[in-house]
Design a protein that fits this description.
6-stranded mixed sheet; 29 strands; 679 residues; single chain; 17 helices; alpha+beta; Phenylalanyl-tRNA Synthetase, Chain B, domain 1; BirA Bifunctional Protein, domain 2; Phenylalanyl-tRNA Synthetase, Chain B, domain 3
């Protein structure tokens, strides 16, 4: 890469033979190693962090440069403030800075330019080059403001809709969810992402203010995604830099500026406090052997962890291990085992083949897996498409569907939109429906079978089959047709889906109770619950509440269902009522119609069950075929008409026997519902 200086003659050391390649003569052939850093290792986003790991593995000795004392000659005229009152998360909990007067900004020294060019950065001026150098050397982003361009103090706060031009030359709007650094008059930049052009340093800069702060990784990532800004600072802050490096980073940057640009430094300004709580793990050294098969002495384990920066102390047969502030990925013993083994050498982990089992293999699918497979086949046969969504949802979506408990929040989420374990399959299905609609694919029918989470205990993890229909996607008709439109989906469409699945899984659907007790994410008047007994809930179904659709920004109506596959009783070894033997007769069934006058509050299911139980041996079926309100009926009354099917077994029923059964039905309905036979 050509430098910016094209004047003069390049001097070469004496004694260099003619014909020597220029890169060798000018010492420009230093090898550059490109390293792929996984998201869980932000400590290795600086050369010092990589060197720490290499030294721990025995490749050289880690050199820690001595930090010269800063001569603080005066108090800073510029103060730092944090203004996050009322915010659930303080995006910038720790901010440090220092005013330096009388600097001379110009071209950075050759050694610094060479190192920056080696990693693909273009030298700009000494102040900017110093911030880039510290970013890649220590993994600690800094920012330098031209103090003459600041108005009053510096404050970290949320955006208020202001616009500003960033260092990339583009104009951005600071929304209320974004952290900004501002003075009393203007926004100076996005915290942890990019500074503004108006307050940046130039070669004419004389007084500077050095910023070193800590920004919340998740909020920084969210701001970066919204703005589309990709910067070296964002790359580090959204992965989680060392929270204990705030004040040290300010001193490192100050020392370099004083050494290369001159000037006089003020006392360090600090707002907030260290955003890190020490973590100590009680570690059993034998876990290394149990988890990996690698046998190591306690002394070697202690040496490896100490070289990686962990504080290790013996506590009886265990080790007390203090996790350093720059390792946000270490939580428990398994993490420590990984650290020890990767430094010792993964090649020491011996591959052990699985034992061959020559006996007859057990069935591949257990009962839960069989139910999932069968439910998928039924729903696919009913015209629905299978979807696979994330097991993580945002906290707001989790709370909409009965979740959001602290124990279900992820310790290290991918993003704020995936911060909690899902309490239901519906958030993912509804979101997928919204994406389909926005792309012009309406009339959606989707289903998913998977796990949901109600708590941190194993028994609070549930296996479910859920689905939804939107627009006109009814079970056997969709959209418009010359014979007639399909019409909007309704609660009975998904009720039929549920009954089809349950019937395939061996549930006697006719024996289930249907009650209007669906949870809050369903429409209270257009939903229901199928249960087996008073407590065993088998399924929810109904229209999704408009409030939920509004908050998820998805067009309705949407009808949905949730089937609790684990709540279905397991089949017994011998035939039961769920698997009845065929019982046929050559006698014709007899059908009788009854119309009962009942209160409007009476559930039709209650009436049907009462009629069926009046003579369970003779009555083979009861169904509702008409509901009537108004007319000559009272305001609080309705008429429910049912058809009762009588199936004789031994002989044809006489008129007297039919009347006796009819009387039993009328009496049973009256006792259960207070209803009377309508004249």
């Amino acid at each position: 890469e050509l430098s910016e200086d094209h004047d003069g003659i390049i001097e070469i050391a004496e004694g260099v033979a003619v014909g020597t390649p220029a890169v060798d003569a000018l010492n420009l052939n230093d090898p550059v190693i490109e390293i792929a850093i996984t998201p869980n290792r932000p400590d290795c986003l600086g050369v010092y962090g990589v060197a720490r790991d290499l030294a721990a593995a025995g490749l050289g000795t880690l050199k820690t440069p001595s930090q010269p004392a800063i001569d603080e000659g005066f108090e800073s005229d510029i103060k730092i403030e944090l203004d996050f009152a009322g915010e659930e998360i303080v995006i910038c909990p720790h901010f440090s800075g220092r005013l330096i007067k009388g600097v001379k900004n110009g071209t950075s020294p050759a050694w610094m330019q060479t190192r920056l060019r080696a990693i693909g950065l273009r030298p700009i001026n000494t102040l900017v080059d110093i911030t880039n150098y510290v970013t890649f050397d220590r993994g600690r982003p800094l920012h330098v403001y031209d103090a003459a361009k600041l108005n009053g103090n510096i404050v970290a706060r949320m955006g208020k809709g202001e616009t500003f031009q960033a260092l990339d030359g583009k104009e951005y709007k600071a929304e209320s969810t974004m952290c900004v650094i501002a003075d009393s008059a203007n926004v100076l930049g996005f915290g942890g992402i990019m500074g503004g052009e108006a307050s940046g340093s130039t070669e004419e800069t004389v007084d500077v203010f050095v910023e070193s702060a800590y920004f919340d990784p998740y909020k920084t990532a969210a701001t970066g995604r919204k703005t589309g800004i990709n910067s070296d600072a964002r790359f580090r802050f959204e992965r989680g830099i060392d929270p204990a490096s705030v004040e040290e980073g300010c001193d490192i940057g100050t020392a370099l500026i004083l050494g290369l640009c001159g000037g006089q430094a003020s006392a360090r300004e600090v707002a907030g406090a260290l955003a890190w709580k020490p973590v100590t793990i009680s570690f059993d050294p034998h876990r290394v052997t149990r988890l990996t098969g690698v046998a190591l002495e306690n002394s070697e384990i202690t040496t490896i962890l100490t070289n990686l920066g962990f504080a290790v102390a013996a506590k009886g047969e265990r080790l007390s291990v203090g996790v350093p502030s720059w390792r946000p990925d270490v939580f428990g013993e398994a993490d420590l085992v990984e650290e020890v083994v990767r430094i010792h050498g993964l090649h020491e982990v011996v591959s052990t083949p699985l034992k061959k089992n020559h006996a007859v293999a057990d069935p591949v699918l257990n009962i839960g897996q069989q139910r999932q497979r069968n439910s998928k086949r039924v729903l696919a046969a009913r015209g629905m498409l299978e979807a696979v969504s994330w097991s993580f949802v945002s906290k707001a979506e989790a709370e909409l569907f009965g979740g959001g408990q602290p124990e279900l929040a992820l310790a290290n989420p991918i993003s704020v939109e995936m911060s909690d374990m899902r309490p239901s399959l519906l958030p993912g299905l509804i979101a997928a429906t919204g994406r389909n609609i926005s792309r012009g694919y309406g009339d959606v029918a989707l289903f998913e079978s998977g796990q949901t989470y109600q708590g941190e205990k194993p028994e609070e993890q549930r296996r479910m089959a859920s689905g939804l229909r939107q627009g006109t996607n009814r079970p056997f008709a969709t959209g418009r047709h010359w014979q007639g439109a399909a019409g909007k989906v309704d609660v009975f469409d998904v009720k039929a889906d549920v009954e089809a699945v349950l019937g395939t899984l061996g549930v006697s659907v006719g024996n289930l109770q249907c009650v209007a007790e669906a949870p809050s994410w369903y429409h209270p008047g257009r939903s229901g619950v199928l249960r087996m007994g008073p407590k065993n809930i088998i399924a929810y179904f109904g229209e999704v509440h408009p409030r939920v659709l509004d908050q998820m920004d998805v067009a309705g109506p949407i009808v949905a269902f949730e089937i609790f596959l684990d709540a279905i009783p397991k089949p017994k070894a011998k035939p039961t009522k769920n698997k009845p033997a065929m019982d046929s007769t050559d006698l014709q069934p007899v059908r009788r119609d009854f119309a009962f006058l009942v209160a409007k509050s009476v559930n039709a299911e209650k009436l049907l069950q009462a009629a069926k139980r009046s003579d369970s041996k003779l009555i083979s079926g009861v169904s509702l075929f008409d509901v009537f309100e108004g007319g000559s009926l009272g305001e609080d009354e309705k008429s429910l008409a049912i058809e009762v099917t009588l199936q004789p077994r031994a002989k044809t029923l006489t008129d007297e026997e039919l009347e006796a059964v009819s009387s039993k039905i009328v009496a049973a309905v009256k006792k259960a519902t207070g209803g009377t036979l309508r004249g």
